[in-house]
Every structure is written in structure tokens, then in C-alpha cells.
User: Fold this.
Amino acid sequence: MGLPSKAQCFEINFEIEKRRIQLRMKEVLLVNDIFYSIQGESSFAGSRCIFIRLAGCNVKCEWCDTTYAYNEGCELTIGDILIKVGAWDCDLVEVTGGEPLLQEHSIQLMEELVAKGYRVLLETSGTESIMNVPQKVVIIMDIKCPSSGAVDKNKEDNIALLKSNDEIKFVIADRNDYEWAKEKVRSLREGGCTNVILFSPVRDCMNSNELALWILEDNLPVRLQLQLHKLAGMK
Ligand code: SF4
Assistant:
């Protein structure tokens, strides 16, 4: 039997790829919610966005506002998720949590979203490695401040893995958090970090006007971020 022709090789590769995609579409994730709203955070704030909230988080921040996503969810295949997402006429999708990277197949989900032409954002706590996140995904990564109770979970190696268009977020609950974050920002900037850095006040805990004044007093190269979706009464 001779070697397959170029056309036969193409056909075989095509079939293998088709099978690989079929299998991947059957991978299951635990999904807390899929919904359409206004993006309230990051440089994309104000844009229409589809949110895929994956269940599960092991960080347990003191002031977490999505505790309902720790365990509650239903099992959906990647194929099911893509069908649900496709119901809205919107090309911006955020994968969030919980902590999305705790679920192994979140990487495949993002790859499939990118392959379908979506602009994909990933909101992550920064406590899991971002190494395998597809390059086309914009990462919005937390650095946990002391009041979260999770500083020891920050994964410092992640900072070197950020792309220039990724963003870093500090959630600030008090002056102590602010001073801690300020030092981090100084050291990041001195180390050549040019990423957008967001300072977000903890709702019902940190006064946003006070935080704004601190940023101005210190000429800190960060952006104040308010949760626009909540101000607009959205989910
Ligand atoms: S990382 Fe996010 S989801 Fe997890 S506990 Fe902290 S705020 Fe909540």
C-alpha cells in the first residue's frame, strides 16, 4: 500500500480536527450563570457583554460579592454554552467566577470562544496560573490586598505572564489596603509594567470619593474603577 496523497492527508487531518472539536464540545463545566448585561469593570466598562460565570472558588475573600457562585451551578458542555452565548447579538464575552481557572476546561471554553470570533475577557483572582490562557484573551487579574484575607494566595509568577493589553485590579477596602496597593503599584511601574491598573473600592466599605482623593493626592498612575453595572441597577 502506497503513501496517502496530499489530498488524502488533508482529508484525514480534516477528519481528525473535526473529531477533536466534537469531543471538545462535549467537555463539561459547572456553570453558575450565563447572562447579558453591561460590563461594569475594566477598560471595557460601559460595553454590552455576555457573562459566563463559572462556579467554584477556593479564595474566599472577606468581602466577596459572589458567594453564590462558590458551589451553585449546573453542568453544561462547551457546546451547550456556545449555543446559549450565541442567543445574544454581542461579540464581547467575559468568563468570570468564582475562579474560572479552577475548572480545567475553562481554557478550552476560551479557545472555542476565540475561534468563533468573540472578543474574550477573563476575570481572574490571580491565584491560579494564567500560563495556559489563550493569547487573544484579555486578562483582568486581581492582586489581592490585605483586607481580602487572601494576600498569601497571590501568584506572583503571573505578573510576568501578563500581556501589554491585560489589566491588573486591586480591590481596596481601607487605607491599609490603599497603602499596600500603592507600594505594589510603585514597584510594578519601576519594574517596567505598563498595564492598566484599576483601583476598585469595596462596596459599602470604602468611600469612592475618599479613594479618588487619595489617588489624586499621590498622583498615582492608576484608574479609579466603580462597578458601573451596579450603579446602573444591572446584574
Ligand atoms: S476570588 Fe472572587 S469569587 Fe473568589 S472569593 Fe474572592 S471575590 Fe469571591
